[in-house]
């Protein structure tokens, strides 16, 4: 096995046992990047090779003295390009922030630096996290390592593709309506959206502030638990950050799940789901039963409101959040303008892509005089009903099991001119964001050679038991370690 193929946990254990050095891990992933990145296009910005290697050498020197900041010290990773990195480009995959270098770090950036992880670069994404395919990046689309003609999902498609292609050991993405879980499903990796408020949003460039949450994309469930332990925690700079004691999520792994009660909402298995996806999910349900888990069908009657509710709440908040990009204080400024109104008009029309403009206009319309009550206010009422659906189910069940995406990865360009069909890619994931509950996607099978994701939703702040459940199920599913065979010439048809 090549070093870059290891999980983050296995790489960390090899470092602990002095079987490898951080420099060797870094050189391994840099070699992998030089081999396959031209086909994956998962990075927007790569940090200079010598800068990365010097950081790895320093970590090795500290380890030699018996000083390591965390178990993941020396392990290479990537950050989605909407998380601030001081002095390093943070563009949100948008022309309007093309030259922006933040003067500060995001909370999660600080946490990972303190843990001694090695940042390799910033991952590509849909512009301002608005999209489900990473085709809306202002620079170039990312390709799915399982089939480079297909999308990796979005908006954290770069983060998911880099992990799937073994270009980094783990990455962070942001999830507003499924943007960690849906690309995790399409790329065959693990993706977690924590409970709203568990991970600080300080330094995350906002899309929709009441929905956004940062989460890990990893090669397996154990890695996910390890990364979450580092990034979770209270932060006074984020007013929505919840003060809680630090929790050891890894300590839940390996515990028996016999006796768990799991709900399977019928609304998530109706029209729109591809049959191959349904079969993979139902096979996983059968394995749950074999593990002693009680699975029962339930109804969550307000699920049908989730997508319109999400696209009203999300666009309204985006309209407000993105008003700051006006060409005055920072970011792109359009040339050849004669007055302030013209400056605003040209800067925003030239700096934003079509999907971002579409969502700003939708949000501005929903908030406008005469339409606020009919659209935005009603969407908040629907959001309350959706949250109550979850509260009702969690009175009797420990977890909820659903598909992550209604289909495997689709062909690049197939849905780009059909926004409604593209939006339906998030039909099973938006509910968790609206309710603020944690949700995770784990690989559960293949459909026509492409990964299928299984979504597990938990009670607020119950990430530990959710990971416990997924860790046990992951062993039974047998998907762990199954990778796309991508080479310098592209993707081969078989998998290993």
Structural summary, described in words:
Helices cover 37% and strands 15% of the residues. It has 496 residues and is an alpha/beta fold. It has a domain at 3-254 and 478-495: Amidase signature (AS) domain (Amidase signature (AS) enzymes, Alpha-Beta Complex), CATH 3.90.1300.
Secondary-structure topology with pairs:
Layout: H1 8-16, H2 22-40, E1 43-46, H3 49-64, E2 76-80, H4 107-114, E3 118-123, H5 157-164, E4 170-175, H6 181-187, E5 190-193, E6 213-218, H7 221-231, E7 261-265, H8 275-290, E8 294-298, H9 306-321, H10 340-351, H11 354-367, H12 373-393, E9 399-403, H13 419-423, H14 430-435, E10 439-447, E11 450-458, H15 463-477, E12 484-487, E13 490-495
Parallel strand pairs: 2-3, 2-4, 7-8, 7-9
Antiparallel strand pairs: 1-3, 4-6, 5-6, 5-10, 9-11, 10-11, 12-13
- Main structural class: alpha/beta
Largest sheet: 11 strands, mixed
The fraction of residues in strands falls at 5-15%
What's the N-to-C terminus distance? 12 Å
Query: How many helical elements?
Result: 15
Q: What are the main properties of this structure?
A:
Amidase signature (AS) enzymes, 15% strand, 496 residues, 11-stranded mixed β-sheet, single chain, alpha/beta, two-stranded antiparallel ribbon, disordered C terminus, 15 helices, 13 strands
Give a short overview:
By secondary structure, the protein is an alpha/beta fold. It is built from 15 helices and 13 strands.
């Amino acid at each position: 096995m090549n070093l870059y193929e290891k999980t983050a946990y296995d790489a960390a254990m090899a470092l602990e046992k002095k079987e490898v050095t951080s420099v060797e891990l870094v050189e391994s992933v840099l070699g992998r990047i030089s081999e396959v990145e031209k086909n994956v296009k998962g990075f927007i910005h790569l940090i200079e090779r010598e800068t990365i290697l010097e950081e790895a050498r320093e970590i090795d020197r500290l380890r030699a003295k018996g000083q390591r900041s965390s178990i993941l010290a020396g392990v290479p990773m990537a950050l989605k390009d909407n998380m601030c990195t001081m002095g390093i480009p943070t563009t949100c995959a948008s022309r309007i922030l093309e030259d922006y270098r933040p003067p500060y770090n995001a909370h999660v950036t600080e946490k990972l630096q303190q843990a001694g992880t090695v940042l390799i670069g910033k991952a590509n994404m849909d512009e301002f996290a608005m999209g489900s395919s990473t085709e809306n990046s202002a620079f170039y689309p990312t390709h799915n390592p399982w089939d480079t003609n297909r999308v990796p999902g979005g908006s954290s498609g770069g983060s998911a593709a880099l992990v799937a292609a073994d270009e980094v050991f783990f990455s962070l993405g942001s999830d507003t309506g499924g943007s960690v879980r849906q690309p995790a499903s399409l790329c065959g990796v693990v993706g977690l959206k924590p409970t709203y408020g568990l991970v600080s949003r300080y330094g995350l460039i906002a899309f929709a502030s009441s929905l956004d949450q940062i989460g890990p994309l990893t090669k397996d469930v154990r890695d996910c638990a390890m990364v979450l332990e580092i990034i979770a925690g209270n932060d006074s700079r984020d007013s929505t950050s919840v003060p809680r004691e630090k929790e050891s999520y890894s300590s839940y792994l390996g515990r028996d799940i016999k006796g768990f009660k799991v709900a399977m909402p019928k609304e998530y298995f109706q029209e729109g789901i591809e049959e191959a996806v349904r079969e993979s999910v139902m096979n996983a349900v059968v394995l749950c039963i074999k593990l002693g888990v009680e699975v029962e069908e339930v109804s969550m009657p307000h699920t049908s409101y989730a997508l319109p509710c999400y696209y009203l709440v999300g666009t309204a908040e985006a309209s407000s959040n993105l008003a700051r990009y006006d060409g005055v204080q920072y970011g792109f400024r359009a040339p050849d303008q004669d007055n302030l109104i013209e400056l605003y008009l040209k800067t925003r029309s030239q700096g934003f892509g079509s999907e971002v403009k579409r969502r700003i206009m939708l949000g501005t319309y929903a908030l406008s005089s005469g339409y606020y009550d009919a659209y935005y206010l009603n969407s908040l009422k629907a959001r309350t009903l959706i949250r109550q659906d979850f509260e009702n189910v969690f009175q009797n069940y420990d977890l909820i099991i659903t598909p992550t995406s209604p289909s495997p990865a689709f062909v690049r360009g197939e849905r780009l001119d059909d926004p409604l069909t593209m939006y339906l890619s998030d039909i099973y994931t938006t509910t968790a964001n609206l309710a603020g509950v944690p949700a995770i996607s784990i690989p559960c099978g293949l459909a026509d050679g492409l990964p299928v994701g299984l979504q597990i939703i938990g009670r607020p702040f119950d990430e530990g038991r959710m990971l416990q459940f997924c860790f046990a199920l992951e062993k039974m599913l047998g998907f762990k370690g199954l990778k796309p065979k991508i080479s310098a010439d592209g993707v081969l048809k078989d998998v290993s």
